[in-house]
Amino acid sequence: WNYHLTHFVTSAPDIRHLPADTGIEVAFAGRSNAGKSSALNTLTNQKSLARTSKTPGRTQLINLFQVAEGYRLVDLPGYGYAEVPEETKLKWQRSLAEYLHDRHCLKGLVVLMDIRHPLKELDRQMILWAVQSGREVLVLLTKADKLASGARKAQLNAVREEAKTFLGTVEVELFSSLKKIGVDKLSQKLDSWYRD
Ligand code: GDP
After folding, report:
1. Are 137 and 170 in contact (CB under 8 A)?
2. Domain range for residue 184?
3. Is the CB of 78 within 6 Å of ligand 1?
4. What are phi and psi of 193, to 5 degrees?
5. DSSP 8-state assignment for residue 167
6. C-alpha distances out from residue 123 to 17, 139, 158, 194, Å
7. What is the CATH number of the domain that holds 190?
8. What is the pTM of this model?
9. Which residues belong to any copy of the EngB-type G domain (predicted)?
10. CA distances from residue 131 to 150, 151, 169 in whole angstroms, order as listed
């Protein structure tokens, strides 16, 4: 697959307004500021395919991109904004849970976490919902360039050990948009999900 050909399709305010549940979807999720937009832009080699919302608490949309006819990337709203009212947080969480559980065409979930702050409570929750619904998960430890190579490897190994406790297919890789680390690993994983 040539991810450079990816283009924006549509935005949806919630999962009830997504396009038909056909083809194959791969979703990207992460805490706000985890580096999700940067990763999507790096993967697709586009400057501003995915844009960051700099206004926490504003209604966040699910953005859909198409790699090829019937093959989509889904940019889920970032979670974990401290400033967001509790009610809004709960609504987002319910909506994410519903999406992970009910979306038949969802093949895999990419969870992005800052390598310096991995596996926060909501990250764990996302992974758990995904594996419980039979989805494969790829965890990307983002901004890997922020750690020296020894610390980077130690963190990778620690998170890989933790990943085993989820009792599902949870792979963990390093990623950096800045230094282009892990981009091939990501595209190979997407290729495998889109293959069948
Ligand atoms: P999002 O909220 O998850 O979409 O995160 P963004 O992609 O907007 O990134 C959040 C912040 O982290 C921005 O200031 C980015 O410049 C920075 N960032 C993203 N990826 C990297 C990376 O690979 N390395 C470094 N050093 N900074 C990054």
Report:
1. yes
2. 3-195
3. yes
4. -70, -35
5. S
6. 24, 10, 15, 24
7. 3.40.50.300
8. 0.95
9. 22-196
10. 30, 28, 7
Q: How far apart are CA 46 and CA 40, in angstroms?
A: 8
| Interface confidence (ipTM) of the complex | 0.99
Q: Judge contact between 44 and 85, C-beta under 8 A.
A: no
Question: Which pLDDT tens digit goes with each residue over 44-73?
Answer: 999 888 876 555 545 578 899 999 999 999
34 Cβ closer than 6 Å to some ligand 1 atom: yes
For residue 19, what are the CA distances in angstroms to 58, 63, 92, 130, 167? 23, 11, 19, 20, 31
Atom of ligand 1 at shortest distance to CA of 33? 2
Residue count of the chain: 196
Assigned token pair, 69 = 């006819």
101-130 pLDDT tens trace: 999 999 999 999 999 999 999 999 999 999
51 CB less than 6 Å from ligand 1?
no
Nearest CA to ligand 1 atom 26: 143
Pairwise CA distance, residues 145 & 126, whole Å: 25
Lookup: tokens for 115:
């390598």
